[in-house]
Amino acid sequence: MRRHELERRQVDADGPPALSRAARRLAAAVLVLLAGLSSAAPAGADDWNFNQEIPCTTAPVYGVPFSQCWVSNVRTFRIGNIQSWRLTYTDTRSEFAIGYYRLVAAHGVGGMSPVTSNSALIDWVRTADALKHVSGGGTNWAVSTSPSGERYVTFQKGNRQCIGFVRNSPANNWTLGATFCRQSATPVPVQEVQFIWDAIKVRE
User: What does the CA dihedral 161, 193, 62, 79 come to, rounded to 10 degrees?
Assistant: First the structure.
């Protein structure tokens, strides 16, 4: 094949050289613009954003000590608008968190679905955004029952033994979850689990 025929076939396939270079420059500029818009975009409304720290004395949950507390954005669901609080305590050997989700404006009837089954209990404690910094990385998840009949989860996180539980509002207008981890070779005693359960109160 002659050289000029090969060059002509390449031009036919790729377009004129000047046009091809211009198209590449335009595509690169569009990609840079899209990347800039993406990085500047705010977090989506489908995320819980715990970026507003509040005095723990103003939190709607009390009864145990907290060192830092945050309130989230309000999110809209089919049942209404829900807001969440993350309440935490941390020291060198233990960590504790409460996630409190409240229906602040109902759109109808029904309210927040209670957490009932064992699998739902584990999933709630494991995946709730307000608890993930404590429950994340947990293994050997199981469900136990306290002497007074409350179900709670047990799990391990490295060299720490952990527990967690979920409490449903009788009126279905809030759900509270708590998780506690402590450096220990043995499980958290059930009496301590019962004490934590009883100590936590909600301001209605």
Answer: 90
Q: Work out the burial of residue 100: count CB atoms within 10 Å of its CB; fewer than 13 is exposed, 13-18 middle, 19 or more buried.
A: buried
Q: What strands, in cross-sheet order, belong to the sheet with 94-106?
A: 52-54, 68-77, 80-90, 94-106, 174-183, 160-168, 151-157, 139-145
Closest C-alpha to 202, from 78, 103, 111? 103
Give 163's strand partners.
154, 180
Signed CA dihedral, 132, 66, 49, 85: sign only: positive
Positions in the chain whose pLDDT score sits under 50: 2-15, 17-19, 22-23, 26-44
Residue that is written with structure tokens 């809030």 in the block: 174
- The pTM for the full model equals 0.76
The DSSP code for 121 is H
- Kindly write down the DSSP assignment for every residue of 14-56, as one continuous string: H--HHHHHHHHHHHHHHHHHHHHHHHHSPPPTTS----EEE-G
The two beta strands, 52-54 and 68-77, are antiparallel
Distances in Å between the Cα of 30 and the Cα atoms of 18, 20, 23, 37 are: 19, 15, 11, 11
